[in-house]
Write a structure and sequence with these properties.
It is built from 10 helices and 12 strands. The protein is of the alpha/beta class. The strands form 3 sheets. It has an 8-stranded mixed β-sheet with strand order 2-3-7-8-9-10-11-12. A two-stranded parallel ribbon has the order 1-6. A two-stranded antiparallel sheet has the order 4-5.
């Protein structure tokens, strides 16, 4: 996790602690479709949604954290402070990998768009150095945040949680209207875009929800959809943080449900299923 401190105000921001945190994890990230190739994923720490199925709870709070994994007794720390320059240096250590794979850097979260100035500057600098960038966002931010970042970004991954406003309001705790408006604007501009749908049992995997989601995305002009299959791999992190994981006992989707969901979306979109 890295606090990206932007520009000449870095010392002031260090003192006032007004900046947010970013997780930098050096892990291979295989994007949807061959054209996206392999990327290094940089995860930003801070999120303004509260999806109860989230498998990265350590990226929610915008502060450094140390997790004690009870099963192994291992302590894992998430957090450090970096200027944009230092973040670029960290990324460029993997430049040979980017060139060999024709990939780049994916800035994920948490929610990277909560820090538009730092993310925009990071992406701008990387573009100058010939490194492709991708932003993974849930879109629950003002439109002007996107206007600052999009000029320096090559592709967006955009989460679509549900067609139901109640799910956004009561479960995810986000502004569905804002999220949908941002997605429409991005699509209308012809920006390279993949909509990513986490398939969550009991939340958005029923036939009605699948068909409503597909209809909304068709109306928005979406072409590429990634279906993200629910898993419980974040359970150990919740326990390490002393938290209860609401989906701990939830079973993954059956093969039949996965095939149905894939069939619904393949009628309209280029679809990738990710485990």
């Amino acid at each position: 996790m890295v606090n990206i401190i932007h520009g000449r105000d870095s010392e002031r921001k260090r003192k006032t602690e007004t900046i947010s945190c970013v997780c930098f994890w050096d892990i291979p990230f295989h994007g949807s479709g061959a054209k996206l190739s392999s990327r290094i994923k940089r995860q930003r720490k801070d999120c303004n949604l509260r999806c109860p199925w989230c498998h990265n709870p350590e990226t929610i709070a915008p502060v450094p954290q140390t997790l004690l994994f009870q099963d192994t007794g291992k302590l894992v720390s998430y957090g450090m402070n970096l200027t944009v320059e230092e973040a670029v240096e960290s990324v460029m250590r993997d430049v040979d990998f980017y060139k060999a794979s024709q990939g780049g850097v994916a800035v994920s979260g948490g929610e990277p768009m909560l820090q538009p100035e730092g993310v925009a500057e990071l992406c701008r600098r990387l573009r100058q150095l010939g490194v492709s960038t991708l932003i993974d966002t849930a879109g629950n931010v003002p439109w002007d945040h996107f206007e600052r970042v999009l000029p320096y970004t090559d592709c967006l991954f955009y989460d679509f949680k549900s067609p139901d406003e109640k799910v956004y309001r009561e479960i995810v705790r986000g502004n569905q209207k804002l999220i949908y408006e941002n997605l429409r604007k991005i699509s209308d501009r012809g920006f390279a875009l993949h909509v990513r749908i986490p398939l969550i049992p009991g939340i958005n995997d029923d036939t009605h929800s699948l068909e409503r989601s597909a209809a909304l995305l068709v109306e928005m002009g979406i072409r590429n959809v990634d279906l993200l299959l629910f898993h419980r791999m974040g359970d150990a992190k919740y326990r390490a943080m002393g938290l209860s994981y609401a989906f701990r006992d939830m079973r993954p989707l059956s093969e039949e449900r996965i095939r149905e969901a894939q069939s619904v979306f393949e009628r309209h979109f280029t679809v990738t299923v990710e485990t």
